[in-house]
Amino acid sequence: MKKPANYRINPWPGIKGKDIPATIELDPVIYNYAPTDAMVLDIGCACGKVSIPIAIHGYSVTGIDINTDVLELAKHSSGSQQCPMSPSFLKANATALPFPDETFDLCVMQAFLTTVVSKEDRSRIIREACHVLKPDGHLYIADFGQTWHSNIYRERYINDLPVTKEEGSFMAYDEKTGEVDYISHHFTEKELVFLLVENGFEIEYFKRDTFVTRTGNRVNGFVVVGRKRLNMHDEGK
Question: Which secondary-structure segment (H or E) carries 76?
């Protein structure tokens, strides 16, 4: 099966901010892993739906994204909020974070990894988060899980596999034009856990949840918190 003519491997830099889906709500458990005066990095921040509430709680927040339009919307939204410290937003790629090692106490990825179609890039992104976290820092992830009991998603997983080449990935279409907007990936529990464990983290919190997509579909989801693992030298002390 050939890829559709309108297929784009990474459309996210050019999608208008108003069209970025952002339906998952921030799980309050995140604040159990944010020490007082924590520095927080929101990776794939989009329009600031996560960055701004965390900043309102009094934390120093930096949000990054590869989409210029969403960053402008995030800056505008944060300016209208009463934040003790306004979040900062900058354009950056999660596969090559522009920060020194051990800068942040907490990294956040809310419905972000679902947009990354490459397994290698997902691993690289988790390693980058690990590098910029302080010792014993934490990574919070909330993302979509494979939902095989749903007729809609089961058909998408199966029908789109010849294009996506990965089980659990499928194409999302523009409802008006019928063109491919982007590819999404839904994770299995094992897949998400090993993504963290194999790239520098121990699992400290894991919860199954149900999320609602931009089209109103109910889908399985996971909320995971990983703690940065000590390196082998430190573990041997």
Answer: helix 68-79
Can you tell me which residue has the tokens 């890039």? Answer: 121
Other Cβ atoms less than 10 A from the Cβ of 86: the count is 16
- Between CA 228 and CA 105 the distance in angstroms is 10
Map tokens 């800056």 to a residue.
75
- Give the max Cα distance, the chain: 60
pTM equals 0.89
Nearest alpha carbon to residue 81 among 37, 38, 51, 108:
51
CA distance 188 to 117: 15
Quick one: DSSP state of residue 31?
A: G
Q: Which two tokens stand for residue 120?
A: 């290698």
Q: d(Cα 150, Cα 126) in Å, to the nearest integer?
A: 29
Question: If we measure between CA atoms, which residue out of 202, 205, 200, 165 comes closest to residue 185?
Answer: 165
pLDDT in tens, 202-230: 999 999 999 988 778 899 999 999 999 98
- Within the chain, strands assigned E span 39-43, 60-65, 88-91, 104-110, 133-144, 169-173, 180-185, 201-212, 218-228
